[in-house]
Specification:
Elements (H helix, E strand, L loop, with lengths): L1 H30 L6 H15 L5 H5 L2 E6 L4 E7 L13 H20 L1 E12 L7 E11 L3 E10 L5 E14 H4 L3
Antiparallel strand pairs: 1-2, 2-4, 3-6, 4-5, 5-6
GO molecular function, one term: fatty acyl-CoA hydrolase activity
Keywords: Hydrolase
Protein name: PaaI family thioesterase
Length: 184
């Protein structure tokens, strides 16, 4: 009986944390006034909201927040706030979480920019410095967008110091249109 009660308290705690995260994200979106491409920002926010609806999935857990974007300049920037669940034993962001940040951030940007669903075909990450900070900017730049593939490079930048801690290169195959891919 005690184990069941503790389990339910744990679930309530997770739901409360999720609601707090959503409120925090809403406040961040209201502060987002200097975005270069408002139309692209709206599309990215829709993708982020779709992710938030799937609370048990990793994309929601990352809780990425749009910082800036431009279809014309071919870039997207997300903020990532470090949480306990993504730390390694040395209190830095776990390498797997860093790769996931790049895969998710670069992939979401590719979906918004191309208006196609995408699947990662390859990704590489270079870990340059320990990620021991509290907040990072994940910057994705799209170097080539074709009919079938999109290629991008990414940087994980410590928001406080401006130091680049990790870089990434990723390729995505473009599949059906985003509108069709999101139909149930």
């Amino acid at each position: 009986m005690t184990a069941i009660l503790l389990y339910h308290i744990h679930l309530l705690n997770l739901r409360f944390q999720s609601k707090c995260d959503k409120i925090y994200c809403s406040l961040n979106r209201m502060e987002m006034t200097a975005v270069k491409d408002k139309e692209l920002a709206k599309e990215i926010e829709e993708i982020l909201e779709d992710n938030r609806q799937q609370s048990e999935r990793l994309n929601c857990r990352l809780n990425l927040q749009l910082v800036d974007c431009s279809r014309e300049e071919g870039f997207v920037e997300f903020a990532f706030d470090v949480k306990e669940w993504c730390l390694n034993p040395y209190n830095g962001v776990h390498g797997g979480a860093i790769c996931t940040l790049f895969d998710t951030g670069l992939g979401m940007g590719a979906v918004a920019i191309t208006q196609k669903m995408v699947s990662t075909t390859d990704i590489s990450v270079s870990f340059l410095k320990p990620m021991n900070g509290k907040r990072y900017i994940i910057r994705a730049e799209y170097t080539q967008i074709g009919r079938r593939m999109a290629r991008s490079v990414g940087k994980a930048i410590d928001a406080e110091t401006g130091v680049v801690c990790a870089t990434s290169m990723a390729s995505f195959v473009l599949t059906e249109s985003r509108a069709k891919g999101l139909q149930v």
